[in-house]
Amino acid sequence: MIINSQRVLVEIADTDYLRNRGLMFREKLNENEGMIFVFETSQQVGFYMRNTTVPLTVAYLGSSGVIMELHDLEPLNETPAKARSELVRFVLEMPRDWFKKNGVTEAQKVRVVKGALLEVFFPEE
Hints:
Layout: E1 2-3, E2 6-7, E3 9-13, H1 16-21, E4 33-43, E5 46-47, E6 56-61, E7 67-73, E8 81-82, E9 88-95, H2 98-101, E10 110-112, E11 115-116, H3 117-121
Parallel strand pairs: 3-4
Antiparallel strand pairs: 1-2, 1-10, 4-9, 5-8, 6-7, 6-9, 10-11
């Protein structure tokens, strides 16, 4: 995955089971590693930290891969960081402050090496 010219390695959560489990029970996450959550349709989401002790920042992205919102999540806090929009199609979790450290802000686009997120994950659309 490429964010602001920075390459990162992400796991893909594209099934209900993988989305529900997320990064639970992880003891660490390397600096340029994260997880992308892929949803079949755009929706309003709310991410939280059940059984997750690694501090994270979550990015809510639209279908185009543009970051719409960034939220810091507190370890083990089960209060959802609810998206303001119903247009979230992808969610990217990275180590806490990764976005700040790499100059990544809202309105920037996230893509994978093979192209746009929507084209890669949903080529039929």
